[in-house]
Amino acid sequence: MKLVRFPSVVAVATLILMTCLVSQSQDKRKIIIDQDAAGPAGTDQQAILLLIQSPQTEVLGITVVTGDAWLTEEVAHTLRMLELIGRTDIPVLSGAEYPLVRTKDETEQWEERYGSVAWLGAWTPALYHAPRELGPMPEGKPTTKAADEDAAHFLLRMVRKYPHEVTIYEGGPLTNLALAISIDPEFASLAKELVFMGASLSPQTEDPEFTNTPRREFNLWFDPEAAHIVLRAPWKKIVCTPVDISVKTRMTNELIDKVKAGNTPSAQYIGKYAHLRGSYNYLWDELASAAWLDPSLITKKENRYVDVNLDRGPGYGDTLTWTDWDKPKREVQSVEVQFDLDTERFYKLFVDLLTAPTPQPGKSSTP
Description:
By secondary structure, this protein is an alpha/beta fold. It is built from 14 helices and nine strands. The chain has a single domain, classed as Ribonucleoside hydrolase-like (Inosine-uridine Nucleoside N-ribohydrolase, Chain A), CATH 3.90.245.10.
């Protein structure tokens, strides 16, 4: 009798195990990371790492856009980071190398008329090099390569494969998203939500970058036309981590040391390559990632209507916001804007995730 029943018991056990694995995969929150992925370490790579390190996420891919650095070097830093933490299964896709309209030469002429800009990303004179050059790679050059597919078409393919399931995380200029919307206007409505670090309303800080230009924030400013397209699109939900809340955070040597004390690949990567840069070391993109993972970190938020100034005067690229009573008659989207946080809980999550073992991919097929 046991000989007859044994195969059926094994079959049932196998079925239960497979069902649990599928259920775990389905329970994970699907996300695509769109990032101007300067590196090694730094706010861009650290934000990516937080999302990868969370056991609750399924990172479908990382799409890269020129912003803090040029596209070519950002792709290389991202590939190498994935090699070092053992997650080369996550595809990396090259996106836009230039903004839709803004150019470096025109920006320099604009600065002559309206004053210098504190941070120009890849165009910052002290850091500038040709677009296709790698620049320094202290972590070593990657041996893996980016996917053949471009960022915009990957974004479109994923939201159609998983309609209303995919969060789009944006940590850089919005060029890739604008291109996806321009190719397929249904892109935004097929996504689950848009979460982005960007915009600036009235940050309370002594940082001279915002003293005279409190409404200028790099991610929206670098490609204003792209930001305008994205912020006007029909997303089901938009969540914004602006400068206002970002300046309430700081990367410190104490935080770096806490992460460095870990013995996991991600902890060792941060411990080796993270360092303080100047007087202000805000955790810009990391906060946007962490707040998506744990929304209870945010203690104050308000709904605003958000757009970008496209006039070619001194306010070109600045953040525009309205409330219900003064919003324009033209179509604008409501955005959940974060204003305050539980800082200590955020720092704890930051350390806990970066010192944890890196989750390994499941057996489900990759995109």
